[in-house]
Every structure is written in structure tokens, then in C-alpha cells.
Amino acid sequence: MTSPTSQRFRGRRALVTGGGSGIGLGCAAALAAEGAAVTICGRTESRLADAARSIGHGCRYVVADIADETAVRRAIEFAAGDDGSLHAVVANAGGTSAVGPLPLVEAAQFERDLELNVVGTFLTIKHSAPVLARSGGGSIVAISSIAGCLTHRNMGPYSTSKAALEMLVRNAADELGPWSIRVNAVRPGLVPSDASAPLAAHDATRDDYLAQMPLGRLGTPDDIAAAVLFFTGPDSTWVTGQCLSVDGGHSLRRGPDLSALIGTHFDSQLAEVMGATS
Question: Which of 158, 169, 189, 248 is labelled catalytic?
């Protein structure tokens, strides 16, 4: 766990969605170590409770599904505390439910990725913005992905949703600036976590990711948390509407080759649907 350093967030409140593990947990721990009163939210209470204990510093948690507007509103109210103040929001929660060629993806799977990554972030922005405004302004940071700027074959719904999230961030920054609310995004490369475990654990896939990174290593939650601290802190008060790639330089090259991970599982189905070979 990060040790307290400058305490630059003392007296400020922060909410991290999806804060029970991975990048969200790393961001929450970093904010708490810097003095923020942090609330994390997610769908699994046991995971949130464990995370809050590991973070310490009085970290609180609330169970909330970011696709549920009522739950999002309640989580933000809970994070704002008795005096109703909130200063930083990290919209980290998201994920994917669809892997495979686009002609084989069900509409419901595509919609679920949009719900997780776009609608959930929209609801978080929608309901946190008024609270941030009443608090004198603040910062919203959305967690995107290199999939938002590089094609990821067989992950089309996820890539599409992250690209949409980045435009949502830009639009929100444009609209909310008059209330001193800054909205930015961090675009991680491959950071091993529960969600990315299949990518990081598969040798050929992981090696292909590494081959596209000039810095030649996978990321860590601390790498992403450092960028989030910049966007939520006093060093970025004239920065809004930006998306910062924190990916070891991966976005300088090409998207990952997932063919070894996907294997031939979809080949016969795809040939049948397409009626021809490519």
C-alpha cells in the first residue's frame, strides 16, 4: 500500500467506482494515502469490504451497480457525506461481455458493453456533476483503454464502447467547464487484473502485447493511479477534455493479436455465417 506523502487531498472527498479490485483499488488506495476521504463502490459487498480494509485511512464502501441509475445516485450521495461535498470522481467501473467476431456477437452482448462502459460512465457524470458544482468544482476521471484508439480484433463491442466513452469525456468537459468541473480520461494499456487475466496469462497474447510496447513491460494499478492523481490534483487545474495514454507506448504501434487466445473456436460458425472464406 502507498504510504502517505504530501496529503494534498486532505479535506477532500472522492468516489471510485469499481474500486474493489485492480485499477480501481489502486486509484482508491492512492487517493486515500494522499489524505482524501475515499468511498468505493461496486456490485460485490464482500470484495468491497476486503478492499476498504486493505486501503485503510477510513475508506468507506457502498454497493452499487453503475448501470442502475438509482444506485449510482445513492452512491454519489453516500460519498458526499453529511455536508454534501464531493471533489473527485474516478469512473473506473466497466468491462466486457462479448469476445468473438462481430458477425457472431449477439445484439444483447453488444448492448451490454455499451451499458457497462458508456451508460455507466454517463450516469456517473450526470449525477456527480451537480454535487461537484455545489462543492465549488472538481474533477472527473474516466478510465478508458487502448482499445478506444486501437482496433482489437474479436473485441469490437469493447473497443466501440471505449471510443464512445472518450467522446463522452470530451463533451462533458466542454459542457461542465463553466462550473469548474474538469473531465479527463486515462487510457491504460494491459494491466493484469481480474478482468484482463485471460490476456495477461496467455503466453502468446501477453508476448504480443509486450512486443508492441517500447517500454517492454506490463502496467500496474500504481501506474494508472499516478495519472489519476495528476488529473484529480492541483497540478492539472487548467487541463480538461484530455485522454492520456498510460500504456508503455503501446498506442504508438498496433493493437494486440488475439488470434492465439481465440483459437479456432469461432471458425466454423463464422464460415457458416459469412458463406465464404476470407
Answer: 158
